[in-house]
């Protein structure tokens, strides 16, 4: 009966485990960096008149990491942030988060593409 040498399979499995761990770390960093860039962009490029600075100062992000990866949520904590972003029946919209996301998304896509190539 022929013997099967599984050492190459074990080595391949170990390489995949190391690569997936490294990819997860790199993806986490990319998501967090992109969220921070979105926040900076939104603060820098807003078009609304903000006399108190409350809305601008409330823009931030929270990131969480679990077995599914890293998730980041960016936006203002000021209760009226959505009214500024989307407008109301009495005021026109002054989008600041959506455009910041659109400008920063290509950098995240590029970072993720590089991770996949590793």
**What proportion of the residues form beta strands (DSSP E)?**
5-15%
The total count of helices amounts to 4
Structural class: alpha+beta
Largest sheet: 2 strands, antiparallel
Order of strands in the sheet with most strands: 1-2
Helix content: 55-70%
What does this entry look like structurally?
The chain has one domain. The protein is built from four helices and two strands, in the order ααββαα. The chain has helices at about 5-45, 55-60, 80-85, 95-115, and strands spanning about 60-65, 70-75. It has a two-stranded antiparallel ribbon. Helix 1 (about 5-45) runs antiparallel to helix 4. The mean pLDDT is about 85.
Which properties best describe this structure?
single chain; 118 residues; alpha+beta; 2 strands; 4 helices; two-stranded antiparallel sheet
Fold blueprint:
Elements: H1 7-45, H2 54-58, E1 59-66, E2 69-76, H3 81-86, H4 97-117
Antiparallel strand pairs: 1-2
Pfam family, one: HK97-gp10_like
Protein name: HK97 gp10 family phage protein
């Amino acid at each position: 009966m022929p013997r099967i040498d599984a050492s190459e399979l074990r080595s391949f499995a170990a390489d995949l485990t190391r690569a997936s761990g490294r990819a997860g770390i790199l993806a986490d960093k990319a998501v967090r960096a992109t969220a921070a860039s979105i926040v900076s962009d939104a603060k820098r490029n807003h078009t609304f008149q903000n006399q108190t600075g409350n809305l601008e100062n409330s823009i931030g992000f929270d990131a969480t990491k679990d077995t599914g990866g890293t998730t980041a949520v960016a936006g203002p904590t000021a209760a009226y942030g959505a009214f500024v972003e989307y407008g109301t029946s009495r005021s026109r919209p002054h989008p600041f988060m959506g455009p910041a996301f659109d400008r920063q998304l290509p950098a995240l896509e590029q970072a993720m593409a590089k991770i996949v190539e590793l």
